[in-house]
## 1
Amino acid sequence: MPNASARPKHSGRRSHRRHREDPARNQLVSSSLESAQQCLFNQDYGPAFVHYLLVLNLAPEFKDFAKESFRFTLFKWAEELDSAGRIQDLFGCYEQALELFPADEVILNSVGEHLFRMGFRDEAAGHFFKALKLKPDYAEARENFYRVANWLVERWHFLMLNDHGRNRKYQQAIQKAVRDGCATVLDIGTGTGILGMCAKKAGAAEVYACELSKTMYELACEVVAANGMDGGIKILHKKSLEMEVPTDIPHRVSLVVTETVDAGLFGEGIIESLIHAWHHLLLPPRKGDSRDSSATGRVIPAGATVYAMAVECLEIRRHNKLCVSEVGGLSMAAAEQLRSPVSCSAEADDSMEPYTTERLSRLPGGYAALTEPLTVLRIDFNNVEELEGLSSRPVQRLRVPVVRDGELDALAVWFQLHLDEESSLSTGPHEDTCWEQAIYPEHASKGFVLKRGDELLVDVSCRDAYLRLRSVAVLRSGRELRLDASTDPRDPEAELCSALASLQTRPDVCVLECSEMALLNNGDYHHSFAAALSKLLTRLKAEPEQSSDPLYILDVSEGFSLLSLMAASHGGVKAYSSVEKRKQQEVLERLARANGVPDGSLEFWLNNGEDEQGALQRPSREKLWSAIFLDCVETCGLVRQKLMEKASLARCLLEHGGRIFPQKMAVLGTLVESDTLLLESAVQGRDATLGFNIAPFINQFTVPVHVFLDFSTLACRHLSEPNELFVLDLMDAKANYDHREVQVVTTAPGRITAVPFWYDIHLDEEVRVSTLAPDSHWKQAAVVLQRPLEVTAGERVRLSVKIRNSSISIEVRKDP
Ligand code: 44T
């Protein structure tokens, strides 16, 4: 029976009575309800959904009664719309559903899942977060949230807020400016609101703040209110470039404070923001020796100095260019055009990033400085003409002496942020700060070895608001050795000639992600695969019932993979690759020809974006797969989502004696004490954040699993040996469990703060690959404990390890 006592939410008593007494409406409601149920029964979800919408809009009192069926209908209909590619309709339906049930955590979670699949990660994360706030013990939403929280509130917020040195310097500079008369302040990119609160606390009469991220804006509002300043700071959810006087702020301000800088200084758009601020939001700059700060405008930071140095670094090299001539028995001579998407070269287009970021001091294998630091740029944020002139500055060619022999892998860049005349922050590689450095990789293939005494020529320019650095040549014994084929950008004619020449002769570049480049360079992985594969093929081919048909092999690795080609290079095999991008398929085809792989033995699967099920079904019906390659660990160090579902599907599609590679994987982990991991996962206490109450708010975005960890360079104390925590058997469903208790004996006294984990991937009984190997393309992950556990040496602790939907959770307690 419908729950007739449920009162419609938005209609008052009178309209409620009117509804009940309106026989035509009642008639329509009951017939629509009946139709909805009938359509649902017939699995006719579209019309069922429309009928339900009508019923619930006309008769909200049925909401409780019909909620379950309505949701079911919605999800089924959404699935149909999704597979028909009717995305706009799909979101339209969800929008209508959320109008009816704005606080329904299941609907919110489901919208989030759709958004995530479409690549809208921030929006997805926002929906998971709302669902979780409504129902904190909703496991699906929690797992979803953990997967995406990193996009919503980036992890560096924790680092920056825990960086006491940086916070204090900003605070002191702001205090000084306010004391000097800056009474009206705008904090651009306020994040959690910390700089705005500093200004208020220092006594500024009016404080404004703006923040473009919705989540951060909402967080700032909460934080400012919790610190009793909500009346004193006006926060706007806006990009500063969209602000104007008097609509957003009543008049121009005397101080702009901002830390909208990334590791490459300009990547967050500080130049554009400050040019706009000087034209629209700030009082005119101080001229001459005028001392009246209340009538003039200024910026904290006042300016910056940017430094660069050339480095040799294997870790950077193997993520950006091909370093091997052979992979798993295949010659790579025909694959020279492969490179990472990080480039400042003349031919780099907009899809390329000019730099990546790394903390040099934590790179596995370290790095060697080949030059002294070189000053590449000085910029005064209080000089609007200088800011405006930056992008039209001519390319500047700098010379830097080489102080040590080594291969030129990258230019590393950092800066000093001058908060005012006295105080500055450095993001350099030797500082004990939260900052990473910007890395401009050198692509000139084959690698150029610099010699002590050489001089390196570096071109510096500013384009699209990015600082661009390019090593162009080396001066050695009076001769100039060019580093790339392109010509002097200051000579337009030569540039045109070279562009024309490259159109005719150069095969176009094929771009792979940095992690895909590192995968290609992972010799151990390919070597192990080749060994296991060749064993399997030899065995299958020797089987008496083996006809003259080829063996069918499917590689469902995500992204670029050479495994199918390795399989195809064995005679008598037909291999299917899941590589989707046309350019990458061409590279595989070229490599196939160059390696004498017979025509037709390599095919591309998934060319038309079929669904997951389709991806695993073999083309011809009469024969099953001999081997299916699953790539089971993501680069970030987590088990790939839906791995076990894919494995069980794959098992059904194997011929007798066929194999899934890998056969199983073991999760290994060590107990450690690491303050670094704590500082990167949550804001610790109030001390670091200048006494402001920020931690509880931002820490809602803490996730228990830290990803992309370099365990080999993590500052930590090992408190145990590595232990096997869990085993996932891909060939045998019955061997799997979802919960395991592991006893670990500690080897040293300390506080257990985290459990870093990685995998031993067993391709077959003998061949094994570790994701912790030195040349691995995988990073590691770590579970960071909610509460550290103090232990002595030789103590027994019990780990409760669970794997649910590919995500791992670990609890540690003392063994009673
Ligand atoms: N990360 C550094 C960048 N914003 C620093 O939405 C150092 C990275 C980093 N708001 C590891 C370590 C570190 N108007 O919330 C953001 C952003 C906002 C604006 C309004 C604007 N014009 C902007 C521009 C940006 O400002 C906040 C800070 S942005 C830079 C943060 C710890 N990986």
Note: Residues 156, 159-160, 188-189, 191, 210-213, 216, 239-241, 259-260, 262-263, 268-269, 273, 357, 434-436 surround 44T (CB under 6 Å).
## 2
Amino acid sequence: MSSTALTGWLASQDASQHLTTILCTIASAGEELAEIIRNAPIAGNVGATAAQNVQGEVQKALDVISNDLLLDRLAAIPSIAAMVSEEMEAPVLNAETGQYIVCFDPLDGSSNTDCNGPVGTIFSVLGRTATGAVTEAEICRGARVQVAAGYIIYGPATQLVITTGTNVALFALAQGAGFQLQIDGVRVPTGTREFAINAAHRESWDERTRRYVDACQLGSKGPFAASYTMRWMGAMVADVHRILLKGGLFAYPALVTADGVKPKLRFLYEINPIAMILECAGGHCYSGDTPSQQYVPHTIHDRVPVVLGAPDEVARYQGE
Ligand code: AHM
Ligand code: MG
């Protein structure tokens, strides 16, 4: 079902016809996925497959279904030169003359599929910086030329968050009527004393992360002189969605282990798009001391540390 509300909003953002086609196709694939996810327990599409992805992670049945569906729908678009997915080792080359590269995490937080928790699809559209067949080097350089980003969250409701670099819009899926505009111009609220982190990794955190979480946990008696709440959804899409609407902070620092320093979240199809959304909504997203969108990956599956959220809370984390 194509969404006239989304088409109209993209026109108000001066999105080109080619970009509109790409973004509406992703939204309509998201509608299909919402139904597949809703019916997964009955259709037997929950649980793991026997396969591992390029990251060495066990693939869930819905990871594979989501990836195949997005690839299939996007491959039909001649303005897409290549696609990059969390689930595939190499870029998928599409139409050589296409002007755009689409990067996606087809089903973020897919471990939640076993327990009916929220999951999401994250996407990023990059403008091309070269002609001819797309190379990994071009995609990595092109990460700074992000022209649109968004995610679809499949929770109690299915919602789409999208930006083309100015406003952030929130759409909600209405059964039989496509995505309907809910908020145009989402802004991250400040003053929310809430943080999201996998606290089980404490012994592998850097000093800055440990100091911040200690201060939150000391509450009104600590340096922040305020009581905090902690939330952790196990799906970045869901944690980011809460922060976008309610404020607070999410961090996934690199873990310092005997085998080296290990960030978890991938840049091109997780952090780069989420950073664009956050920054357009008045929030911040950093990888170390650098705004995440300034990072230039070396490979398409590069991982980076991240702290993101409302500007006041990110400043506290950074020690400002
Ligand atoms: P995925 O893309 O394979 O689902 O992995 C990314 C997810 C994020 O959505 C989430 O924030 C994080 O991994 C959860 O990790 P943890 O296992 O530390 O809870
Ligand atoms: Mg993910």
Note: Residues 53 and 202 are 27 Å apart (CA to CA).
